[in-house]
């Protein structure tokens, strides 16, 4: 059972967050709460030591503070900040720096791509889709949750969770 949780829950939730951010420009709180609760569930089921859980909590809290500073400056959305923190909870200090570096690089590429797309006229067939029109709108932000989700999926196989499965 714990193997199934490790293999499916985290990836499914971060993919859902990315798709939601792409289509609606929002990451529902239930996704970030789900990530956090699933971390505790998997940590308990796998027998993670209380001290290690504490270090993972510290990593999540540190990322939450930093991400909300980015939110306060208008660099990312609130859902992105919460997602980064919930994901950091899973990664702990062992992997959080690489996660944030990859997420930042991918976010930069995503931003540059959207800026390029927004500089071009939106084709009529694409304008019929609300989510595409929203992405094209220069007044709309960047769905940074996509970059965070891809970074999370890149880092996840390197974590102790997956290493314990022999993946």
TrEMBL record:
<keyword id="KW-1003">Cell membrane</keyword>
<keyword id="KW-0812">Transmembrane</keyword>
<keyword id="KW-0472">Membrane</keyword>
<feature type="transmembrane region" description="Helical">
    <location>
        <begin position="96"/>
        <end position="120"/>
    </location>
</feature>
<keyword id="KW-0378">Hydrolase</keyword>
<dbReference type="Pfam" id="PF01478">
    <property type="entry name" value="Peptidase_A24"/>
</dbReference>
<feature type="transmembrane region" description="Helical">
    <location>
        <begin position="141"/>
        <end position="157"/>
    </location>
</feature>
<keyword id="KW-1133">Transmembrane helix</keyword>
<feature type="transmembrane region" description="Helical">
    <location>
        <begin position="27"/>
        <end position="45"/>
    </location>
</feature>
<protein>
    <submittedName>
        <fullName>Prepilin peptidase CpaA</fullName>
        <ecNumber>3.4.23.43</ecNumber>
    </submittedName>
</protein>
<feature type="transmembrane region" description="Helical">
    <location>
        <begin position="57"/>
        <end position="76"/>
    </location>
</feature>
<dbReference type="GO" id="GO:0004190">
    <property type="term" value="F:aspartic-type endopeptidase activity"/>
</dbReference>
<dbReference type="InterPro" id="IPR000045">
    <property type="entry name" value="Prepilin_IV_endopep_pep"/>
</dbReference>
<dbReference type="InterPro" id="IPR052218">
    <property type="entry name" value="Preflagellin_Peptidase"/>
</dbReference>
<feature type="domain" description="Prepilin type IV endopeptidase peptidase">
    <location>
        <begin position="8"/>
        <end position="112"/>
    </location>
</feature>
